[in-house]
Write a structure and sequence with these properties.
With 263 residues, the chain is of the alpha/beta class. It has helices spanning 11-19, 25-38, 59-66, 78-91, 131-144, 158-163, 221-230; strands spanning 2-5, 49-53, 70-75, 100-103, 115-120, 145-156, 169-173, 177-186, 191-201, 207-217, 233-240, 253-260. The chain folds into two domains: 2-157 and 219-260, Vaccinia Virus protein VP39 (Rossmann fold), CATH 3.40.50; 160-217, N-terminal domain of TfIIb. It contains seven helices and twelve strands. Helix 2 (25-38) packs across helix 3 (59-66).
């Protein structure tokens, strides 16, 4: 067995799609599609450009591309992007525009074009560990949105990170991979730390081990709204991701949408 002290999403990238196979990406694509249509930005779809921040292995980008959108994905992990680009082979002939992918940290992202919609899903903004940096990212989003553009994202709630419904540890063992993690929430920093150990079978029929530390910051709704307003967004709405209704004390995930002011 070979041990690796890994950058996040190095070992996890090798098993990510199988590890997250229960995520309902179709639901996410539908929610985004509906929000875009309701904002009057989705007709015709082929003229609507989407920037997908922290796009991961490109599953959502591919679904949106099949719905007719022109999608550009950005992620800081080369390993995740390699998996995303491989999926384009399966999309040929199924969509007008294949997703394009760029490697960048979203705190410094500069794609060089404007988009009608910017999205960030699967609690990726929780990985930004301070409100100042989150505000900086919102400013980057503003720089990439056309006037009147739409900003959509979800975020894990403080309740979820502090209480971890389902337990503060997890393990999954398959024939050729295993994933273990344990979570601990610090109420002072309001950061939840996830210690991952990932085992992947190699060509020698042994296992490579990757140890990764993932950290997620809990943000309060009022702070997110203030940061959005500070960076030029208006028409801000937030709902419970699971129900589509109002957020409540035990909501697990919040869904935000905001418009860039026409200046």
């Amino acid at each position: 067995m070979i041990d690796h002290e890994a950058e996040i999403y190095t070992g996890l990238a090798r098993v990510y799609d199988r590890f997250t196979r229960d995520i309902d990406y179709e639901k996410t694509a539908h929610r985004i599609d509906t929000a875009i249509t309701q904002a009057g930005l989705g007709r015709p779809r082929h003229s609507t450009r989407i920037l997908d921040l922290a796009c991961g292995t490109g599953t959502l980008a591919g679904l949106l591309a099949k719905r007719g959108y022109a999608v550009t994905g950005v992620d800081s992990s080369l390993d995740m992007l390699a998996a995303a680009r491989e999926k384009n082979d399966c999309l040929k002939g199924l969509c007008e525009f294949l997703p394009e992918y760029f490697c960048s940290d979203m705190r410094s992202v500069s794609v060089g074009q404007n988009f009608d919609v910017v999205i960030c899903t699967l609690d990726s903004f929780n990985y930004i560990l301070s409100l100042d940096e989150l505000t900086l990212v919102f400013g980057r989003v503003r720089q990439h949105l056309a006037p009147g553009g739409l900003f959509l994202f979800d975020i894990n709630t403080r309740y979820k990170l502090a209480h971890m419904p389902g337990g503060a540890s997890f393990c999954e063992v398959l024939e050729d991979m295993a994933v273990f993690w344990a979570a601990e929430f610090d109420p002072v920093t309001e950061i939840c730390s996830f210690d991952f150990s990932i085992f992947v079978k190699n060509e020698r029929n042994t296992f490579d081990r990757y140890d990764e530390l993932h950290e997620e910051k809990a943000y309060r709704t009022r702070d997110i709204v203030a940061a959005l307003k500070k960076t030029g967004f208006s028409g801000i709405e937030w709902t419970d991701w699971d129900t589509g209704g109002e957020l409540h004390a035990k909501s697990l995930r919040a869904f935000f949408q905001a418009l860039l002011k026409n200046i």
